[in-house]
Amino acid sequence: MAKYLLLKHYRGAPAPANDVPMDKWTPEEISAHVQYMRDFADRLEETGEFVDGQALAPEGTFVRYDGPGRPPVTDGPFAETKDLIAGWMVIDVDSYERAVELAGELSAAPGAGGEPIHEWLELRPFLAEPPTITE
Amino acid sequence: MNEVLLRSLTPSVLGILVRRGADFAAAEDAVQDALVEAVRVWPEEQPRDPKGWLVTVAWRRFLDATRAEAARRRREDRVEEEPPPGPAPAADDTLQLYFLCAHPSLTPSSAVALTLRAVGGLTTRQIAEAYLVPEATMAQRISRAKRTVSGVRFDQPGDVATVLRVLYLVFNEGYSGDVDLAAEAIRLTRQLAAAIDHPEVSGLLALMLLHHARRAARTASDGSLVPLAEQDRGRWDTASIAEGVEILQAALVRDRLGEFQAQAAIAALHADAPAAEETDWVQIVEWYDELARLTDSPVVRLNRAVAVGEADGPRAGLAALAALDDALPRHTAVAAYLHERDGDLATAARLYAEAARKAPNLAERDHLTRQAARLNAHLSRQG
C-alpha cells in the first residue's frame, strides 16, 4: 500500500542492452511492444495495483519566472545531455520488493528482434500521508 | 436515511447469508443489492426490524441470482426457502466475517479493502477515493480478494492478531475522500470489541481513541505538523481520552499484556500530562521496555531511545541510539533532536537536514527542514 512512480527516460539513464532506436524496428515489433505495455497495465488493474500511466512527447520546454511584468523565459534548443521523461506509470503495491519486481517486468518489454529491451526504469516512492500513530 | 445504521448492519446480514451456505462473493453482491433497495424504500417506510428486512431481501436476491432458472420454474417453492418472518437470529456472525476479511491468504491491501467493503459496508468508490486509486482498480482488488477467500471454510477459528493488524492499517491511513478512515477504523474496532472478549482488541480500541483524541491538535491551520510537546492540549478531546483510559485499564487488569495494550499505555501517559514537561517519561521508558520484550521491533527501540533521552537526559538517549542500526526510519531525526537537546546545534542542524531528505512523507519533511532552518538561522546570528 505504497505508491511508486515508474519513470521511463529518453536520455540520462544508462543505455539499454537491446539499444536499437524504435524507427529501426519492424512494424510488428512495435505492435508487440505496445501490446506488452497495454497488457502490463491491464494485468496491474486486475491485481488492484494500477493507478495511472501516460506517455509523453519527446520534446519538453523548460520555463522560469523572469521578473515582474516580463514574460516567462523558456530555454532551448535542448542540449543532447538533457534528461527527458518518455512516460510514466504509477503503481500502488504492498512492498518495495513488489515494486522492483514490476519495474523489472516492465523493463522486459520486447524491442528489436522481439528480445527484451532491458531498458533502465527509475523507481521513485511517493511521499505518503503521515501515519496517525507515531510515538 | 441512516447510512451509519445501514453500514453497521452490513456485516451481520452478510454473516447470516454466508452461514446459511451462500458463497461469499455472491452473498456480498446480494447484500449490496439489498442496501441499495433499502436506500430506495426506507425513506418512505422504515421497517420495524431493519436487520430482518435486509436479511430477507438479500437472501431473496441471492436465490434469484444463483438459481435464476430454478427460481423461475418453482416460484411457489420459494416461499419455503425464504427465511421465516420475524427478527434475524440473535447469534452474531459478524466476528467470522472479520476473520474471513483479514484471512492470512490475502495481501495487506486486499484485506483492508475487503474489510472496509464487507464489514464496513463502504462502497467501492468510497474505498478507492480513500486510497487514491481508480475505482476500476479497487473493484478488481476487492473481487480478487473475494475469490481468494471464497473457498475458505467458515467454521475455523480465526486469528485475532491478523484482524487487529488490518484495523490498525486502516486507522493509520490518514484522510482523503469522503470517508474518515480513522473514524471508520474506530467504529469497526468497537464493533469487534462488542463481539469478542479479548484484551488486545480493547488495547487497540484504547490506542485508537487516545490518538484520535489528539487529532485536532496534531496539525496547524496551514496543515503543518505540530509535535506532541507543542500541541495545544486544550484541543485534545477529553471525553475520548477518558474512554480510552477506561477501556485500557479494564484490559490491563486481566493481566494478558499485548503490544496494543502497551502502546495504548504509552499514549495514555502522554494524554495524562497536563503539560509536556509534566510527562511521566520514567514510566514511559518502562512501557517501552515491555513493548520491546513483546515485539523486539527496532522501531520500538528507537522510540525507547527518545523516551530515555527525556527521562535520563540527551546523553543517555544518544547512548541508547548508538546501539541501533542507523538505517532505521527516523533514526537521523531522533539523533538530530537529541544532539540539539545536548547543545550541539551544528550537528543537530546537519542531521535535521539529512533527516528531511529521508522523510517518508511531506509533512515530516517540511517539519524537519524547518527545524534545520531554525538552527541554521540561530547559528549564523551567533557566528
TrEMBL record, chain A:
Q: Which InterPro entries match?
A: Dimeric_a/b-barrel, YCII
Which part of the chain is the YCII-related domain? 15-107
Q: Which family does it belong to?
A: Belongs to the YciI family.
Protein name as it appears in the record:
YCII-related domain-containing protein
UniProtKB/TrEMBL annotation, chain B:
Pfam families the record matches: DUF6596 (PF20239), Sigma70_r2 (PF04542), Sigma70_r4_2 (PF08281)
Which PANTHER family does the record cross-reference, listed alphabetically? BLL6612 PROTEIN, BLL6612 PROTEIN-RELATED
Residues covered by region (Disordered): 71-90
Q: Which Gene3D superfamilies match?
A: 1.10.1740.10, Winged helix-like DNA-binding domain superfamily/Winged helix DNA-binding domain
Keywords of the record, alphabetical order, are: Sigma factor, Transcription, Transcription regulation
Q: Name one GO molecular function term.
A: sigma factor activity
Q: Where is the DUF6596 domain?
A: 161-251
**RNA polymerase sigma-70 region domain location, by residue?**
6-70
InterPro entries, per the entry: DUF6596, RNA_pol_sigma70_r2, RNA_pol_sigma70_r4_t2, RNA_pol_sigma_r2, RNA_pol_sigma_r3/r4-like, WH-like_DNA-bd_sf
The entry assigns this protein to a family as follows: Belongs to the sigma-70 factor family. ECF subfamily.
Where on the tree of life does the source sit, at the highest rank? Bacteria
Swiss-Prot/TrEMBL GO biological process terms: DNA-templated transcription initiation
- What protein name does the entry list? RNA polymerase subunit sigma-24
Start and end residues of each RNA polymerase sigma factor 70 region 4 type domain = 98-148
